[in-house]
């Protein structure tokens, strides 16, 4: 018997660390290194480089110079950083690259950046913690209104699989050029939900992350169009199609998942273009949602599109507020290029006497703010 | 009303191509470009570089030199390539980087590489085609035997959500250092299943992709250990724990999904370490699986571990083959470092008179072969 089991000379479990590196091609370099004092050290081996820089949201995208140390390794240590999820890139002789030592990289529209997380404070909501985890699914549904099968991401809360309970549903929409992956990558939606549910701050809920580009079946790379580069310039964007077809999504969710299919158990929110969508969908179907969130919303007249979605805003908002949504929540950063448009929209709501809650942060049109808004909005739902 | 909707000066839908680039930071360069004659052109803008090379499985990892063209763009065009999913990296003055123009990159253990796909032939099984798509979920389950909650990937076939049908289950295991993501990324499991089911070559089935590292709750980055670099050198690998705990997985699946919970409707297969696991799990629990697949399996004596899983192989195989599994399928490449060990194992099966099917390919211990084996194995199941 043993004879039959001649061990191969290079047995898998006997690989040395050196052989492992050769086999998998990864240099033994730690980058980024999260230091105990909350500074972060970036490292790169680039023998031929004349200059190496690092830039990201940790340094407002200014380029910091790495210096070659005695071992020939390029290195840079940041100031102390506040708890946050950060993204960054290296620049080697001006060529933008990802950090070869950091396998954690996420795509945002058409750019891939590396990420790291400084724990503590609110950033602990963005980390995977030792708590029960929900299920995250990529699901295809039929949209007869758009005439296509489309892909969505669905978060079901811990325990969903082996219970008979019904749950409320939160529809969470992405920004322009984004897709059904966006809230799961830089948005950290599943981590935020897991953590808020575990601490009792949020009710267990289903979160539905659709694809808001009406011309697109699914995220780039996930359709029969192949591995083509993503583009922000998609046709049929903010011209009424997505809003018109939204009941297809709600119908699919209510017929597929154990939901409470009523207004009191439905929320909708979105960032940027998704905030625009949340505004128009919630007023177009005022009987659907009791909770509405506009995160850095693109407040923008679109009557020029000819879509009936954008006509009679006055009348539709009146009906929406007559039905008294339990929460109409507007959030924006004080440096957002959409700040003025949001202020004007709030003035209009004020003039009409429509109640809403306003939440202002610093900074602009960035993921840091959208993670904050998500983690502020979710605890207010379905209470 | 219109007054309230003052458009922001930089309106989202009005961004020019140039502004989009600036905002999202992506240069307008096509790389890789798939040419009509099935050659592929790689391009890189690297003004400071002295040498730029490209290497991948399309050129057996030899480094091909890109040349600077008249526009200052580094460029290289391959020979005609056969249909296949390929991965590659650039080397700029010896620094290994990903292609900044290609956002499609996958992690294999601790290495991130870019991918592209030349369509045609078998490679069409690896592409997302215009066919019904199954759902892919990341699900956490309880493993009392290992004393932890663990993560798996689950593929449910098209139509699963809105039917009452029961389905057979195929357990698909990864190799050393891999995790529950491996078969979904370079393995193209969901595309292969979608396409084979759509063409009628495979029965609709549930595919369960567990994490085979008994010390690991989930893929790197998906646990409370944080965004630490992945490692191949994990404790509790191939020492009996995973095999011992496997009934926890089957129990969870049969209690959570609409399965046919019997031997005739269960298959198990794995690559490399996963083939080793499939061998031992299928003989340890001979009443569970009617279909067994060993893909480039690590045939390796492990009695030294002291685990009862690896004792009495003779007796356990005898019981397994007495129960007459409908398919015992062994596949390997003729240049695989495990080729001899697999030949010896087959000789032993021959000597005992245990029936099996053998499938040999060219090449070695590589993903190209594992995709082939998966697409050959699946059509033989549950018929």
Outline the structure in words.
The structure is a homodimer of 383-residue chains. The first copy, chain A, is α/β, with parallel strands linked by helices and 383 residues long. Chain A is 21% helix and 25% strand. Chain A has helices at residues 17-24, 189-198, 241-256, 273-284, 313-322, 339-352, 367-377; strands at 33-34, 40-44, 52-56, 64-65, 67-68, 74-77, 84-92, 95-97, 105-108, 111-118, 135-143, 148-156, 169-173, 206-209, 266-271, 291-295, 327-333, 357-361. In chain A, the strands form 3 sheets. Chain A has an 8-stranded mixed sheet with strand order 11-12-14-13-15-16-17-18, with helices on both faces. In chain A, strand 13 (169-173), helix 2 (189-198) and strand 14 form a beta-alpha-beta unit. The longest helix of chain A is centred in the middle third of the chain and has 16 residues, at 241-256. Mean pLDDT of chain A is 92; it is low at 1-24. At the A-B interface, helix 1, strand 8, strand 9, strand 10 and strand 11 of A face helix 1, strand 8, strand 9, strand 10 and strand 11 of B.
Shape of chain A: globular
Helical coverage of chain A, percent range: 10-25%
- How many β-strands of chain A, per DSSP? 18
Average pLDDT metric of chain A: 92
Spatial order of the strands forming the largest sheet of chain A:
11-12-14-13-15-16-17-18
Search tags:
18 strands; 6-stranded antiparallel sheet; 8-stranded mixed sheet; 383 residues; 7 helices; homodimer; 21% helix; disordered N terminus; alpha/beta
């Amino acid at each position: 018997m043993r004879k039959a089991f001649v061990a191969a000379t290079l047995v898998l479990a006997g690989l040395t660390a050196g052989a492992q590196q050769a086999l998998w091609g990864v240099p033994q370099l730690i980058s980024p290194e999260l230091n105990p004092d909350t500074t972060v050290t970036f490292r790169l081996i680039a023998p031929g480089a004349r200059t190496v820089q690092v830039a990201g949201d940790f340094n407002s995208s200014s380029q910091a110079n790495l210096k070659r140390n005695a071992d020939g390794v390029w290195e840079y240590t940041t100031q102390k950083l506040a708890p946050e999820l950060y993204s960054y890139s290296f620049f080697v002789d001006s060529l933008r690259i990802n950090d070869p030592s950091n396998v954690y990289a996420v795509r945002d529209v058409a750019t891939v950046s590396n990420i790291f997380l400084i724990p503590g404070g609110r950033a602990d909501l963005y980390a995977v913690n030792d708590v029960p985890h929900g299920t995250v699914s990529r699901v295809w549904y039929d949209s007869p209104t758009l005439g296509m099968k489309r892909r969505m991401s669905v978060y079901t809360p811990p325990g969903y699989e082996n219970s008979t309970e019904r749950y409320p549903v939160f529809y969470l929409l992405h920004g322009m050029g984004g897709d059904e992956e966006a809230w799961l990558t830089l948005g950290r939606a599943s981590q935020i939900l897991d953590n808020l549910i575990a601490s009792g701050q949020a009710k267990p809920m289903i979160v539905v992350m659709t694809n808001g580009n009406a011309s697109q079946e699914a995220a780039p790379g996930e359709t029969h169009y192949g591995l083509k580069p993503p583009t922000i310039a998609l046709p049929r964007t903010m011209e009424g199609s997505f809003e018109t077809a939204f009941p297809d999504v709600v119908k699919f969710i209510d017929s597929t998942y154990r939901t409470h299919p009523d207004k009191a158990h439905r929320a909708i929110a979105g960032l940027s273009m998704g905030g625009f969508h949340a505004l128009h969908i919630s007023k177009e179907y005022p009987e659907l949602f009791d909770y509405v969130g506009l995160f850095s919303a693109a407040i923008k007249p679109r009557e020029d599109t000819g879509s009936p979605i954008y006509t009679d805003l006055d009348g539709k908002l009146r009906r929406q507020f007559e039905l008294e949504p339990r929460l109409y929540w507007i959030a924006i950063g004080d440096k957002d290029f959409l700040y003025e448009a949001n202020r004007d929209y709030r003035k209009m709501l004020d003039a009409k006497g429509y109640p809403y809650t306003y939440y202002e942060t610093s900074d602009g049109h960035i993921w840091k703010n959208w993670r904050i808004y998500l983690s502020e909005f979710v605890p207010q739902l379905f209470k």
